[in-house]
Amino acid sequence: MKDGMRFVDCDMHIMEPADLFERYLDKAFRERVTLPIDAKGNIKRGTIYIDDEATTWDIEMQQHRKPNKGVLGDRAEHTTQPLSGSRIAAGGHLDFAIQRNYDGEAQIMGMELEGIDIAVLFPTMGLSLLARDGMDPRLSLALAQAYNNWIYEFCQHSPDQLKWAALLPPHDVNMACAELHRCVTELGAVGSCVRPNMVNGHFWHSNYWNPLFTMHEELDVTMGFHEGTGAAYSHMNKLYGENRFYRHVASHWIEMQQTLIAMLIAGVFEFHSNLRVGFLEAQNSWVPGILTRIEWDYPQYRDSHAPYLSLTPREYFQRNCWAAVEGSEPEIAATAGLIGADRMCISTDYPHFDSNFPNVSNNLIGNVGPEMAGEILMGGAHLYGFDESHFAKADEAAKRHARAAAE
């Protein structure tokens, strides 16, 4: 708990081990994946190549760097705007996790520092793993399966506290459905992780995805949209080039906006009324504006272009959707007044460079006060369908860990 309040982290990250694919990838596909190695010949974290193409655009394109702190000298000490790179690294807040190589115990320690009861885990490297058009669907599935098998084992460290979202192969909808079914029914996943981008010409208003929407409903699990800057096919690359600052600002907001527009106007929530969708790690002050813009055009276009809609866009959102915040955004209270605090959840984004860990929950409480903060901290429970029985099990697991640490 956090100050007596239940806290579900709707989007906590892991750091995949460098040798994940060496250990977990189907051997039939192993030669198509090239892993980075260090001077001693050991596999290390870094850019992975799949079929000789880099999995992330950033490493390949950012060849020209701006001066770092060492070059700036004293000027860097007096900046009035400490940016995201300083949030988590400068204070040594991740030393405990680095020392443990981001293992399951480190994950639990991070949760304890933030007061998290239950965390739903999302990938790091995996966010860019499948981010390209034209990938062999069988390879896409094999890569997703490798990650999902690993994260399942990772969560066995404390399965009542550590939950996870299944990485889905977006290059074939039937394979995505099959993998979601396997992960939920055999491995206990509580939702999916998909990117909000268009893949192979299929965007999220397309009937192509209907089987996947239906599968989420039938399994009663959550569909989690999570952007990751640097996708090889992202049009943000064409707009902004190698400067990641531009693309990081644009991709997380704009890709989510386009997905929400597509799903609302297409009637996804009309025809899949039990679908739960989370828009994660993109703040949420954009939501009221997008809903207002759609509703502005609603009278002009509904009868001619969307006669199947029976609710207003805002009503669909408040029934089917949640959008995450990261605690310190100044617009949280105002946004809650427009869409409802119960439509919000919170992401610590641990252990990423731009996270405010270990002060995400503290920032939220200081920002909006305990009453509203309590609703938002609990929002992830509603998104993923956790009830008091889940919290009771998580409490028992936390007590076991505390006893073990004291011995």
Shape: globular
CATH architecture: Alpha-Beta Barrel
Percent helix range: 40-55%
Mean pLDDT: 90
Determine the number of helices (DSSP H or I, runs of at least 4 residues). Answer: 21
Q: How many beta-strand segments?
A: 11
Distance between the termini: 23 Å
Provide key terms for this protein.
alpha/beta, TIM Barrel, 3-stranded antiparallel beta sheet, 21 helices, 11 strands, about 50% helix, about 10% strand, globular
What would you say this structure looks like, in words?
- By secondary structure, this protein is of the alpha/beta class.
- The chain is 48% helix and 11% strand.
- It contains 21 helices and eleven strands.
- The strands form two sheets. An eight-stranded parallel sheet has the order 1-5-6-7-8-9-10-11. The protein has a three-stranded antiparallel sheet with strand order 2-3-4.
- 44% of the residues are buried.
- Mean pLDDT is 90; it is low at 60-86.
Report a brief summary of the structure.
This protein has helices at residues 20-24, 57-61, 69-72, 74-77, 85-88, 95-99, 104-114, 126-129, 137-155, 173-187, 210-219, 235-240, 244-266, 268-271, 286-305, 313-320, 332-339, 360-368, 370-377, 379-384, 388-406, and strands spanning 8-13, 33-34, 49-50, 53-54, 118-122, 162-167, 191-194, 222-226, 276-280, 321-325, 344-346. The chain is of the alpha/beta class and 407 residues long. It has one domain: TIM Barrel (Alpha-Beta Barrel), CATH 3.20.20.
